[in-house]
Every structure is written in structure tokens, then in C-alpha cells.
Design goal:
About 35% of the residues lie in helices and about 25% in strands. It has about 350 residues and is an alpha/beta fold.
């Protein structure tokens, strides 16, 4: 296979891009740029395959985005999820169906598929390589959420909970956060929660997740997790990040969670990562072919991302506050009991 530099010269594109962060935003952009003949190097701190904190429930990305990125076939065998059950502190609030099926696939599998596609296209991938978000021409930062001094902890594992699932996706609200259950490959169920950090919670790996579930009033789910088989190596955690717009480094080209992080209950963060990558294709190709200056490309991208994501970030943060507030939860529970919960309008506002 021709190297990425020689392919680009054949296509008339000469400038090279470096993407720091080989998660969904970074790898899908890298694949899309390679398909357009741009030489790309991805610098990734970790290695593939690996488990990551994520609900692994992909909702809101359209086929046109996945096709523009050149990755739609990677989802051919993903689970199709339609039915949704929403519970709070052990009681059912609402049952419904998604208007468009969501996709279920583990990050262990998806990140591996994306990185392999990038390599097949002649991209250069350096794993185990940690770099810093320093603005420079041709440098894109897709390093994901920053784990520092924020309020949230994310915990996830895969467990054999299929027998107790009452819908393709179950959302369980608690007094300290929420947890989603969704099927991924090989019969495993992703159990992934976002919680307010609570230093009094103790336990290692999935026991810590069970402890947080218990602390939020989801005792039955905590017991089910303790009694179930857990996929070896699947537990992962991340703590200290903040939701919403992230602190910007002046002049840096940023996308994905590093730019803005939507609250996870929406199941839309991965879709946003793909959509951000799609949005970046045109300005970055223009720069690579010497038609615009680097800062023009960066500013164009920033403006387009703001425009594309503004409404959903705003609404999702409001709903997130409602979910984390006891009055808000009882309001939603009462609406659910009266069959008045506006599930589909709420869903479309966070897409
Ligand atoms: C608890 C929780 C549950 C979630 N559930 C869902 C869900 O069900 N559905 C959904 O759509 N979204 C969900 N999300 C959000 C989703 O995981 C993210 O929005 C998505 O992963 C963002 O992709 P990204 O590429 O921006 O970041 P990531 O996928 O996090 O990728 C960032 C990459 O950068 C690498 N990196 C970091 N620092 C460096 C460095 N210094 N140098 C080099 N590389 C670096 C990391 O190793 C990583 O590979 C959830 C998030 C949380 C916290």
C-alpha cells in the first residue's frame, strides 16, 4: 500500500495532519481524511483493544454521517436497539420505543475496528504515545474528557444481565446519578453509570459500581450485578471530569469530548464525536490542499461545531439537572405515571 504522504501528493494534497487522541472523534476523522488522500498520523496514549467507560449505546447519528466518514460498514453487525425503559429508585417511570434504532457495540470492538480501518488506509498510528494540547498548524486535539477536579465519576463493566432486561435500553435514575443497561456483543450487557463523586463509597472494580448503585437507591440492580458474571477486564472508571463545554486553549483545533461533553443519559456523546469529525472534514481538507490558512480552518470548525451542538448541549444540561434533583425526579415520575412524559420531544431536543 502506498504511504500516506505519496498518496496525498498524487491527490494534490501535500500538508500532513497529526491527530492526538485515537478515540471515536480522532479515529473517525483520521479515516475520513485518509479516504480523501490527506496524510494523517494519530498519536494515542493507550493501546487497542481496550475497554473504556461508555454506555456503548449509539443514538442520533445518521447513516449519512457514517458514510461521509467511511465507517458505516463497521456497524453492520451492531445490535439494533429500539425499546426503552426508564426507572427511578426501583420504580418504573416510562416505557417507549426509539423512533430510529440505536446501535450497540462495545468500545473494545469499535475502537479496534476504527484503528484497523485507519491502518488499512495507510495511516500512521503511534500507540502508547501521550502528547500535550499545544496549538500548532496541522495539529488536532481529540484527547477526550479531562479527568481533573470535576464532580463526576463514570464506572462501567459488562455483565451477564440479559435475563433480567425488560427493554433494549434501561435507564435507572438514582439520588446520586444514573446508570444505563444496554446489550453489546456476545450476550454481554453494558452497565455504565455516571455518579457524583462520593468518597465514602468503597469497593474494587464492579463492587464499586454496585456500591454507587446502592448509594443511589438502586438496591435491586446492585444485587443483580453482584450475583452476575462480569466480563474479565471490562471494568473501567474515570473520575474528575466536568460536563458541557470544556475550557478552550486559544488557537487549538479541538473536537469530540475535549471540545464539549454532553451528559451521558442522552446516549448521544459518541454520535457527537462522529458528527464533530464529519464537520471537520471540509475545513481540514481545505487547509491540507493549501486553500485556507490553519487558523481560518480552526475558526471555521469552531463556529460550525457551536452551531451544530448548541441546542442539544443546552437542553441536555437542563434535563441533567432535573434528573439529579429530587424534586425534578418526582416531577418526571409523576408525569410518567400520568402517561404525560414527553419522551419523543425530549429525545429530539438532545439530538
Ligand atoms: C459514564 C459515561 C457514559 C457514557 N455513555 C455513552 C453512551 O451510552 N452513548 C454515547 O453516545 N456516549 C456515551 N458517553 C460519551 C462518550 O463516551 C463520549 O462522548 C465519546 O467517547 C467521545 O469521543 P472522543 O473521541 O471525543 O473521546 P474518547 O473516546 O474518550 O477518546 C479520546 C482518546 O484520546 C486519548 N488520549 C487522551 N489523552 C491523550 C494524550 N494526552 N495523548 C494522546 N492520546 C490521548 C484517549 O486514550 C482516548 O483514546 C458516555 C460517557 C460517560 C462518561
Amino acid at each position: 500500500m502506498a504511504g500516506s504522504g505519496s498518496r496525498a501528493r498524487m491527490a494534490g494534497l501535500t500538508k500532513e495532519l497529526t491527530i492526538a487522541g485515537g478515540g471515536l472523534a480522532g479515529l473517525s476523522l483520521a479515516v475520513a481524511l485518509r479516504l480523501r488522500g490527506v496524510p494523517v498520523t494519530v498519536l494515542e496514549a493507550g493501546h487497542y483493544p481496550r475497554h473504556r467507560v461508555c454506555g456503548e449505546f449509539i443514538s442520533g447519528v445518521g447513516p449519512e454521517t457514517l458514510e461521509a466518514l467511511g465507517i458505516s460498514d463497521l456497524f453492520d453487525d451492531a445490535k439494533r436497539q429500539r425499546s426503552v425503559l426508564w426507572c427511578g429508585e426501583g420504580r418504573m417511570w416510562h416505557r417507549n420505543f426509539l423512533p430510529v434504532a440505536a446501535l450497540g457495540i462495545s468500545r473494545h470492538e469499535l475502537d479496534l475496528r476504527l484503528s484497523s480501518r485507519f491502518l488499512e488506509l495507510g495511516g500512521e498510528l503511534r500507540t502508547g504515545y501521550r502528547c500535550r494540547p499545544v496549538p500548532a498548524d496541522g495539529f488536532v486535539w481529540a484527547g477526550g474528557r479531562k479527568a481533573r477536579t470535576g464532580r463526576w465519576v463514570g464506572l462501567k463493566c459488562h455483565a451477564r444481565l440479559g435475563d433480567r432486561m425488560e427493554a433494549d435500553l434501561e435507564m435507572h435514575s438514582g439520588t446520586n446519578g444514573y446508570v444505563g443497561l444496554a446489550g453489546v456483543e456476545d450476550g454481554w450487557v453494558n452497565v455504565c453509570g455516571l455518579f457524583r463523586i462520593d468518597e465514602t463509597r468503597r469497593g474494587r472494580a464492579e463492587e464499586l459500581l454496585a456500591s454507587y448503585l446502592e448509594g443511589g437507591g438502586n438496591q435491586e440492580l446492585a444485587n443483580a450485578l453482584r450475583d452476575s458474571e462480569v466480563r474479565p477486564g471490562s471494568f473501567s472508571s474515570v473520575a474528575g471530569f466536568e460536563l458541557g463545554r470544556q475550557v478552550a486553549v486559544a488557537g487549538l483545533c479541538v473536537l469530540g469530548d475535549a471540545e464539549s461533553m454532553i451528559p451521558p443519559f442522552t446516549g448521544n456523546g459518541m454520535s457527537m464525536a462522529f458528527q464533530a469529525a464529519e464537520t471537520a472534514i471540509e475545513p481540514l481538507c481545505q487547509w491540507a490542499s493549501d486553500r485556507i490558512a490553519w487558523q481560518t480552518a480552526v475558526n471555521q470548525l469552531k463556529g460550525r461545531l457551536r452551531q451544530r451542538f448548541r441546542r442539544r448541549l443546552f437542553v441536555a444540561r437542563l434535563l441533567h439537572r432535573v434528573l439529579l434533583d429530587s424534586g425534578g425526579r418526582s416531577f418526571l415520575r409523576n408525569l410518567g405515571a400520568l402517561h404525560l412524559l414527553p419522551f419523543h420531544p425530549m429525545l429530539s431536543l438532545v439530538r
